[in-house]
Amino acid sequence: MQRLLKLLLIAVLGAFPLPALAALNILACEPEWGALANELGGNKVTVYNATTALQDPHRIQARPSLLARARNADLLACTGGELEAGWLPILLRQSGNANIQPGKAGYFEAANYVQKLEIPARLDRAEGDVHASGNPHIHTDPRNIALVADALAKRLSQLDPDNAAHYQARHRAFADQWQAAVLRWEKQAAPLKGTPVVVQHKAFPYLSRWLGLQEIAVLEPKPGIESSSGHLSEVFAQITRQPVKMVLRAAYQDGRSSEWLAEKARIHAVSLPFTVGGSAQAQDLYGLFDDTIQRLLAAAK
Amino acid sequence: MFRRKLIASGISMMLGAPLSAFAADNAEMLQIRNEIRSMKQSYEARIEALEQRLQRAEAKAGKADNRNAQAEAVTAQITSSAPSSVSNAFNPAISLILSGTYSSLSQDPANYRITGFIPGGEIEPGTRGFSLAESELIVSANIDPNFYGRLTLALAPDNTLGVEEAAVQTTTLGHGLTAKAGRFYSGIGYLNEQHPHAWDFVDAPLAYKAFLGRQYGNDGMQLKWVAPTNTFLEFGAEAGRGSNFPGSERNKNGTGSYALFAHVGDDIGTDHSWRAGLSWLHNTAKSRTYDDLDSAGNMVSNSLDGNSRLWLADFVWKWAPNGNPAYRNFKLQGEYFRRQEIGDLTFDTVNLASIDRYSATQSGWYLQGVYQFMPRWRVGLRADRLDSGTVDYGSVNSANLSAPAYNPSRNSLMFDYSPSEYSRMRLQLAQDKSHQGVTDNQLFLQYIMSLGAHGAHKF
């Protein structure tokens, strides 16, 4: 009887693909951390991205596929800062995986390793979908990526000490190459300094601070609340007094309000890749910033 | 020389044009003017340069200030993120659901029944007019490194307080295992585990009302296991008191109900995701009393001793362009129920009290689709069908109780508008033919608002 049960179990499990056993299984909440884990882990890690660049990370659902991946993950690499508050708690509670619970080495929150912006002085839902610990879209500043890379490399070594040398070597190589890339991007983006812009969602404060863009207005009346026609007219009135060069949005956002404003005000509507996979050029972290800066420069001309 | 020219030019400027007419030498005058102009320019340049230097110095000082401010902010941040020693720092997350309805029902809800089905639980469509729906107070937190606890209190409009859920569950068993104990909604089916505020319609599907008395909650234990596969595969078992319909209070040791369930689910590309499941629920009822109409149309009180076995098949399929449900999405869900009840039925417990065998095999299903066609706006359609199946009251009781061959049905249409993630307003129109020969046209207006901690919702 027991043998029969065992056989049955093997048959059932055999019908479904099993996760890779050799490598460290990483479930990345957002593609930027998946890409970073790949940069640092190489062939020692298997990365599954819970979201794509075309999905709003605030609005993801705890899909069965994500539960299955969370069950088998050795490491959860997420932004944190309440960005995933609507779905990650379900994955943590329902996956039966002790290793990825908050406080364990398998739970990694990138936002803990950088200085946050826009920490609200007043916590009130009347202000929209505000995050108590500040704006969570930290990855739009490549210097933050470098900080997170330091912490993530340490975490990988801690979880997989046998390959610690591998992770550290890859991290060193990445850090050097990244630093050079950041200098290159800063040089390329020098003409953007001081450029006045409008943003659709408060998704870019870190990018704006890095490149010196001036955010004049936001299309969403409150964070996470879709813009109404009344608010759009207000923004239009504001930018006729205070002209801007372009209106920025993330690839996952609907472009209608941006395009409307851009046409009316005769400015550029720029869809930025926002994260890895957000455009044809943004296939990795380098491509992400190459493309972001190219698009900004093209619109600023 | 310089001064003399300056004075001269000053005088010339003061006296203006009339003097120039008397100037002996126009060429000299022009020369003086040019000199003044060049002087003026050189002073202006020097002043400008000084101003620029001043600005630079000020900017530097400002930057230093900024830096100081930033440093202060960082320290402030560090101090604020340091655990505070106040006693409420460990308070659990609290969220509150406020909900209210306006109902317009063409039939008196007091006469509501689902023909052919033994009633149990809360099946009525609610009161007419304005009423408060259930407000829910949800308190949850990690208890220690091993357990998570959650309490859901339902504050009913009649000023009573109900404990909907009060359960603890493990967080660190590992190997895909989660154990839960306390009072909780059973993991059977799809909709059963969801709280009413997460429903897509104002009320529960007819099949849930007929077979589970609206929603099946239990005091007991649950063990769930998620298989280590890339496809979601989950198995669960429950044992509990079974005091809720279709079970009953029994005053006995041991368990009154068992449940087994399995779920499987995955994504298809980025746009589609699905989950399907199969569940089985077994209840033992002891003196499960209910009021019903007999064949002559008189209200009598009956009671049932027996076993109830319910099979439940469920599926849900969700679609969103690029898997991003923020703008447009579609959700299709359906569940099929089949229940067999066998036991002894006592007819008219107050007077006649005649006991005879009872057996019934009944089934039902619902299918609903909800489409968000633009941000904030959704429309939904639901079809409910029940099959009263074969009901055998035995040779004695069939003289007083009849089993009409009637298939109750209901169709519902829903619109809702969600100004934000935390608020929703809904209009629902329904035509309810649960009661044979009676059509209840229903209109509901509802609001559902959530306050406090950001809740995470199940798939």
Can you describe this structure?
The complex is a heterodimer of chains A (301) and B (459). Chain A is of the alpha/beta class. Chain A folds into two domains: 172 residues, Nitrogenase molybdenum iron protein domain (Rossmann fold), CATH 3.40.50.1980; 110 residues, Rossmann fold. Chain A is built from ten helices and eight strands. A 16-stranded antiparallel beta barrel of chain B has the order 1-3-4-5-6-7-8-9-10-11-12-13-14-15-16-17. In chain B, strand 13 and strand 14 form a beta hairpin. Chain B is 19% helix and 48% strand. Chains A and B meet through helix 3 and helix 4 of A and strand 7, strand 8, strand 9 and strand 10 of B.
Q: How would you concisely characterize the structure shown here?
A:
Chain A is an alpha/beta fold and 301 residues long. Chain A contains ten helices and eight strands.
CATH topology term of the largest domain in chain B = Porin
CATH superfamily of the largest domain in chain A: Nitrogenase molybdenum iron protein domain
Helix content of chain B: 10-25%
Q: In CATH terms, what is the fold-level topology of the largest domain in chain A?
A: Rossmann fold
Order of helices and strands of chain A: HEHEHEHEHHEHEHEHEH
Strand content of chain B: over 45%
Distance between the termini of chain A: 76 Å
- What is the mean predicted local confidence, pLDDT of chain B? 86
Order of strands in the sheet with most strands of chain B: 1-3-4-5-6-7-8-9-10-11-12-13-14-15-16-17
Residue-averaged pLDDT of chain A: 92
Count of alpha/pi helices of chain B: 5
Which CATH class of the largest domain in chain B is shown? Answer: Mainly Beta
CATH-defined architecture of the largest domain in chain B = Beta Barrel
CATH architecture of the largest domain in chain A: 3-Layer(aba) Sandwich
Count of structural domains of chain A: 2
Q: For the largest interface in this structure, which chains are involved and how many residues does each contribute?
A: A-B, 51 and 53 residues
**General form of chain A:** globular
Secondary-structure-derived class of chain A:
alpha/beta
